[in-house]
Amino acid sequence: MSEAVARFLAMGGYAAYVWPAYGLTVAVLAGLLGWSLGAYRRSRRRLEQLQGARAP
Amino acid sequence: MPLHRFANPARFMRLSAVLLPWCGAGAAALLGIGLYLALFVAPPDYQQGEAVRIMFVHVPAAWMASFVYALLALASAIALIWRHPLADIAAQSAAPLGAGFTLLCLVTGSLWGERMWGTWWVWDARLTSVLVLFFLYLGYIALVNAFDEPGRGARAGAILALVGIVNLPIIKFSVDWWNTLHQPASVFRLGGPTIDPSMLWPLLIMALGFTLFFACLLMIRMRTALIEAKIRALRRAEIERHTAAPRRQAALS
Prior knowledge:
Chain A starts with a helix and ends with a helix. Chain A is built from two helices and no strands. Chain A is rod-shaped and about 65 Å long. Chain A is an all-alpha fold. Chain A has one domain (3-54). The longest helix of chain A is centred in the middle third of the chain and has 40 residues, at 15-54. Chain B is mainly alpha-helical. Helix content of chain B is 79%, strand content 0%. In chain B, helix 2 (55-82) runs antiparallel to helix 3 (85-116) and helix 2 (55-82) crosses helix 4. Chain B is elongated, with a radius of gyration of 23 Å. Chain B starts with a helix and ends with a helix. Chain A binds chain B through residues 8, 11-14, 17-18, 20-22, 24-25, 28-29, 31-33, 36-37, 39-40, 43-44, 46-47, 50-51, 54, and chain B through 35, 39-40, 44, 49-51, 53-54, 57-58, 61, 96-97, 100, 103-104, 107-108, 111-112, 114-115, 213, 217, 220-221, 223-224, 227-228, 230-231, 234-235, 238.
């Protein structure tokens, strides 16, 4: 690992505070996105099935 | 049932289908640029060093926490007064997102506070009022789902959301009224921001990214709720058809 990368990751000694803050932000936003998109896709599929079953 | 009750959700489905790709692309671009500026371009603070970078996620999350609640209360008022069919759906779709932003605000603030104040938590007025906001979100979600009949849950939740709005000015002005540990406003204040442009721009871009991200998720969640309502209506019609058919035969014989 190059020195510049190591220095960046060290965050001037605050790595244990800065990275958890960013990690948690990404986790919460990704979690909300995955949860909402998953529910959206599931209900769309159910509606299609329901409409497909009624069609014939 | 008057036609306009269907017209607005239908129009929302059409409009959101057009808006969603743009909104998603905008959110992804702004959050990408914002993260790059926050982590690589913005300078370290002269007092806080690199720890100041927590601000770029903490402050947008805090703004969103209050903004989403204001929206939740507004939608609740519209739902109570005009019974607009989209208002309850908007409020219920926004609530978990607001709770997520509030949690994010609390935890990133705690991480920042441990380094800069030397404590994870104090019962400072700002911290306490944001914790109350988090409980208001949780209470709203619990209350809406606590009734067998969805309409009653929605109405009870809407009333709670409106009562809870007194907390918003308390959050905003807590740092001036009880100036204990949390710093006062440095962006939205009379006389303009006191924060340097090299940090203000990344902050504003992140905040706009958070806002667009929220708008996307709100549309997706509202679309989901409308599709679910349609599924329920179709199932109800199916059941009615099945129960009506034998009765008609009985009448014929």
